Amino acid sequence: MGAAMEPRAERLLSIIEVQNAIAAAGMNSDEVQSLVAERAASLTGASACAIALVEGEELVFRAASRATTLQLGARLARTATLAGAVVAERAPIRVDDVSVDARADAETRARAVGSLLALPLLYGESAVGVLEVTSARTAAFTDEDVETLRLLAQVVAIALHRAYTYPRPRYDVVHDAITGLGNRRAYDERIAAELTRKKRYAHSFSLALLDLAGLETAVDRLGQAAGDDGLREVSTIVKNHTRAIDGCFRIGPDDLAIVMPGTSLEGARTVAERCRSHIAEARPCDGLITASYGVVEALDTDETADALAVRANAALAADKQARRG
Known about the structure:
Radius of gyration: 24 Å
Order of helices and strands: HHEEEHEHEEHHEHHEEHEH
Number of domains: 2
Strand content: 15-25%
Distance between the termini: 54 Å
CATH architecture of the largest domain: 2-Layer Sandwich
Structural class: alpha+beta
Low-confidence stretches: 1-6
CATH class of the largest domain: Alpha Beta
Shape: elongated
Largest sheet: 6 strands, antiparallel
CATH topology of the largest domain: Beta-Lactamase
Mean pLDDT: 87
Helix content: 40-55%
């Protein structure tokens, strides 16, 4: 096999979009595998794609896309199978004609495919599974397909590593899966509740918006797992330097919010500045991630959530401008 070619720009863009979708939606490992299987089949023009994970001496199929005779949950012995060889060798295997290639095992031939391409899911030196695409045509896959699947395989391997390494917060409709903070829905509900409380009981509150500059750069340079680690570190700092009654939220890919009931504008600025200072000291992702903030206090009038957000974003923009100056 020749040297792997760089994927075309549109393929690379599609892979970046997959990574962004995973980060934004906080997908769990099963959701990541399903998305990658679908995208791998689409990008390579394959008839089908399947992902199998190593479980002891077996490979268990956990995700599939398009027409395939493989059933989710099906188990194959790692020995004497092509998928097992991919894991053992930790290297891609491409079979241009299944009917004549000696590497194709009985299980592969039984699926009546013309050609296939299989890559290991690697994390460090460990092979945790296999990403495989098949086609009814012979010689359907190229060196460019090898490199495309290599990038997608890294996306899956990172998601699996996170799932096995980090304690995951509970998955529900109001928590961000990566940080454990409240998500955008929870934020909107909290703002609505605080505005109602203010109108009825004259209980004031302040809002701080934090913009995390450099997160995208960190992901590009250090990888998605490192970017997620940096995001968790920042979120922990924010959580540790706010009160139990305060609400901390991730409201965008690189945007956090703190809702502080009973806190004046100056008090909220002190909290936000303290968070920014500790983020700077911690230097998440080798110092690539930094924070800007905008703080406002809810007005005495019947201010809407949208109007509050406009003022907070204006304060955030002013802070960014001041930092650049």
